[in-house]
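Lysine N-acyltransferase MbtK: structure tokens wanted.
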Amino acid sequence: MPPTESGLGSSSAGTLGLHLPPERRVLCDEVPRQQPPAGTPAAGALLGGLADGAVADTPAGPFALVPVRLDRDLGRIARWMNDPAVAAFWELAGAPETTAAHLRTQLAGDGRSVPFLGVLNGVPMSYWEIYRADLDPVARSYSARPQDTGLHLLIGGAGDRSRGLGTTLLRATADLVLDRRPSCERVIAEPDLRNTASVAAFLSAGFRYSEEIELPDKRAALMIRDRDSRHLL
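Answer:
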């Protein structure tokens, strides 16, 4: 299981485009969305309105979740996975095929987990996985509720870390989940307990600490952002 986070505590080169309204057209070049092969489940069907990506205004600038496309994004994501600060938690360092296999599992799946690039001010700078926690093995480790939705995150460039971006983007993404998925009452995360900076970022982003949980590859802090209290925290 991948971690919930990495590097929350080199700027990414290049830009990526989405077709957005003029006031939110913050990415440079429009790119076509990857379509699932005919006869297979629509990518992200189990995640409803999030499957095709989403855009939010944040204090750091316009932020977009762009669905990963393997032919376009593999090189960038594989480079991030080989950063020692990322590899320590994601354990996907090595040849690009190691990362490709991880991505293909999601892209060819039934839509319960969808990978995204996080694009801030037009620049890809983070990698996200949004997944149905209630349908994931993590549900065996806590009292899962129907439609619980989980987040995994890494910030790719060292220059984007340790300046509060993790907190800003975690809050924005959790709110996108709650806005786009009315049936979801909780967004959950399970950062490694050793990553105290990450746990602090989730707390600052409006998540509450629930409990320690034992996962196959780590002892984790279960963090929860509740719909009912999202405007209070």
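The chain has one domain: 52-229. The first helix runs from residue 70 to 81.

Cheers.
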